[in-house]
Automatic annotation (TrEMBL):
It comes from Malaciobacter marinus. This is Chromosome partitioning protein. It comes from the Bacteria. It holds the Pfam family HTH_ParB. Belongs to the ParB family. The gene is parB. One of its GO terms (cellular component) is chromosome. GO terms for molecular function: DNA binding. Residues 34-124 form the ParB-like N-terminal domain. Keywords: Chromosome partition, DNA-binding. InterPro entries: Chromosome_partition/occlusion, HTH_ParB/Spo0J, ParB/RepB/Spo0J, ParB/Sulfiredoxin_sf, ParB_N. NCBIfam families: parB_part. One of its GO terms (biological process) is chromosome segregation.
Length: 289
């Protein structure tokens, strides 16, 4: 199923109608604005955003107490008396923090599948969504709607390259993803760790946090981990230099028979250029044994 009308378009129409005096005809086409008890509103289960700044929520709550809610939240009504939130998670949380029983809401008439789509697109278009939440939102839209990166790019107004690079971050371990979500490391640091195993990722991530490594310094560290230690291999290799003096007579006799013989370090070599050479070697060992 292709993605349909975006939440931004719907909310844009709502805001125009609301600012123009809540035109009844316009609002009936879009949704109804009502005061709903906060306890009847359920959070959207498809909400990808999990982390909220408590200080900013308190600031918003104080502002609502003093000035009221300037922009309604958006909900859909369930089969019972409850509602499911589409847009306005922070505003709803701030209302509850202020202990205000009711919140001004726009009730839209959309189906369950559309709800998932709108919630995800609405969050993708926000600047304060952390990059891991954004990556999961991309993945959910792609999987639910069976669309390509190019198709998603056109729907959310992001470049295909940006979407692909963001999705690659989901290949990282949960440990690194958590650090990235909490802004302990940057996306630049995280991308360098792609291709490392889980243990190596943790080692690099802890080094970035503990030593405050730059992206360039992190690149050097990852390069060291990936490259085999040639110095160690060389140091473990023993030099084999044997003493060939006990074979002096053998060498002398073979050379006197016009054979090319070489003995040095760890090998003894007799060069054979003809069948006659083989006969000479055979005769030598037959006579000496």
């Amino acid at each position: 199923m292709a993605l349909g009308r975006g939440l931004g378009e719907l909310l844009g129409e709502v805001e125009i109608a609301y600012e123009n005096g809540n035109s009844k005809d316009t609002l009936e086409k879009i949704g109804t604005i009502v005061d709903i008890e906060t306890e009847l509103i359920k959070s959207n289960p498809n909400q990808p955003r999990k982390i909220f700044d408590e200080d900013k929520l308190k600031e918003l709550s104080d502002s609502i107490i003093e000035h009221g809610l300037l922009q309604p939240i958006v909900v859909i009504q369930n089969s019972d008396t409850s509602f499911t939130l589409i847009s306005g998670e922070r505003r709803l949380r701030a209302h509850k923090l202020a202990k205000i029983d009711k919140i001004k809401s726009i009730v839209l008439d959309i189906d369950e599948f559309k709800l998932r789509e709108l919630a995800l697109i609405e969050n993708i278009q926000r600047d304060d969504l952390n990059i891991i939440e954004l990556a999961y939102s991309y993945a959910q839209l792609i999987n639910d709607h069976n669309i390509t990166h190019d198709e998603l790019s056109k729907k959310v107004f992001k470049s295909r390259t940006s979407i692909t690079n963001t999705l690659r971050l989901l290949q990282l371990s949960s440990y690194v993803q958590q650090l990235l979500a909490n802004s302990k490391i940057s996306a630049g640091h995280a991308k360098i760790m792609l291709g490392l195993d889980e243990h190596q990722q943790k080692l690099v991530a802890d080094s970035v946090v503990g030593q405050k490594l730059s992206v360039r310094e992190t690149e050097k560290l990852v390069k060291q981990i990936k490259e085999p230690s040639t110095k160690k291999v060389q140091s473990n290799k023993k030099n084999k230099n044997y003493d060939f003096k006990p074979l002096n007579n053998v060498l002398k006799t073979l050379k006197e028979n016009d054979l090319k013989v070489k003995a040095e370090k760890d090998y003894f070599k007799i060069e054979i250029t003809s069948q006659e050479d083989i006969e000479k070697i055979s005769n030598y060992f037959r006579n000496t044994l």
